[in-house]
Amino acid sequence: MKKALLILSILFISVSYGQEIKQVPQISVSGEGKVKVVPDQASITVTVETKGNNAKDVKKQNDQKIEAVLKFIKKMNLAPADYKTQRVSLNPQYDYEKKKHSYNATQTIEIVLKDLSKYDELMEGLVDEGINRIDTVVFESSKLAQYQSEARKLAMKEAKLKAEDYVSVLGQKVGRAMIISDNSQNYSPQPMYAAMKMEMSDTRVSRETMAVGEINITANVTVSFILE
């Protein structure tokens, strides 16, 4: 019995050693793909904030302003799916020095503007109708999925090119990919935070009030290739 166990142990060691000898040579490299895109739409978050001493009056005033804002948005011919109420609140506030309660009502609307040529007209009209807080303006691309696909392909091409550069001095060739890991982070465009310091003139003049620039859509991969 002991002899049989000894033979099995020797066979196991031999098999393990053989497997180690037959390891496939590989190279692991990373690649990044980046696509620069000019945004074609904006996600805008705005709020009507009303304060006062009577909860009912504060809520009523806030509702009236929001009603005017929504009517204006409809006049701008935005699709109903492109704007929605995001948040509604009515909160009591206590002034410890004056020992008095007051109330703060807010309603927040999120708008997706798909025609950036209407940006100035929209923002001025919102303020005129009662918006007194611009929370964020995020410039985006409506073709995000398409550009993400392009970035992934560029990342794979860079990874293969990098692997070929490394092994070119070794007299070897890059074979098929064994392992592909996607290291990309979720795309998150950077918001522009806007304080309510807007000067409105009675005379509407044509002017540029924003520079959308470009947004970077990136993909990152790690690829292990067989060496031939």
Automatic annotation (TrEMBL):
Annotated keywords: Signal
Record-given protein name: DUF541 domain-containing protein
Superkingdom of origin: Bacteria
Pfam families given in the database record: SIMPL
Signal peptide: 1-18
Positions of transmembrane segments: none
Alphabetical list of Gene3D superfamilies matching this protein: Protein of unknown function (DUF541), domain 1 (3.30.110.170), Protein of unknown function (DUF541), domain 2 (3.30.70.2970)
GO biological process, one term: DNA damage response
